[in-house]
Hints:
Blueprint: E1 3-9, E2 26-27, E3 30-31, H1 32-41, E4 47-52, H2 56-62, E5 69-72, H3 79-84, E6 96-101, H4 109-121, E7 126-132, E8 141-144, E9 151-155, E10 169-178, H5 179-186, H6 202-209, E11 214-219, H7 231-247
Parallel strand pairs: 1-4, 1-6, 4-5, 7-11
Antiparallel strand pairs: 2-3, 6-10, 7-10, 8-9
Amino acid sequence: MSLAVIIMAAGKGTRMKSDLPKVLHQANDRPLIDYVIDTALALDPWKTILVVGHLAELVRKATGRYPVTTVLQEPQLGTGHAVMQAEEVMRDFHGDVLILSGDAPLVRLETLRELIALHRTEQAAATVLTAELADPAGYGRIIRRKDNGNVLRIVEQKDGTEEELLVREINSGVYVFDARMLFQSLALVNTNNAQNEYYLTDVFGICFRNGKKVCAFKTGSPDEILGINTPEQLREVEKELLRRSSIS
């Protein structure tokens, strides 16, 4: 089956205290985006699409040696809006779409392969990579069905009940979708929310309402899902990348 990869790389990263696009901040003398692209290309996808926005030409130049297709998100109106920008490039594509974040370089190739395999084995419309955290505060929670373990809903921190917020399995922001379902659903997403943005996670709500199967694959290594929003988090990720390189 065909696979396409979309990498989110449009963000500014305000909390990084730099005007440099977040994905171009370096870890062990390499831009963060390099790690993510290397992992994506190892999956041998039909196409790898890089969604650029803030200082787009700088990101394009930095990634120019890679066989990736760039699409521009301007203005930047949320994660769902970012994926919408890839629709024209993928007009004739029929298969699965893997969504990755350009500022999350710790996701392992083996984990992504297992995520995709589960999605296909279960013939799911959407599958989310999850992790169990000792302190899940701030993350969306994965609520599973008790009978078969499939995802019942994804609850944002601000919307969760007291019982739901006890759940420690969280949404990583890495997903696999059936391409046709994804873009049909995005056409129904609106900006009626506090941020006035198009949320990619709204696609899951549409799946649930239409009775589509949504699965989750839980990684046993929670560090894989760590993204980077601050210089301190960048240093922690850098340490982990260095540790991995020393044992490989």
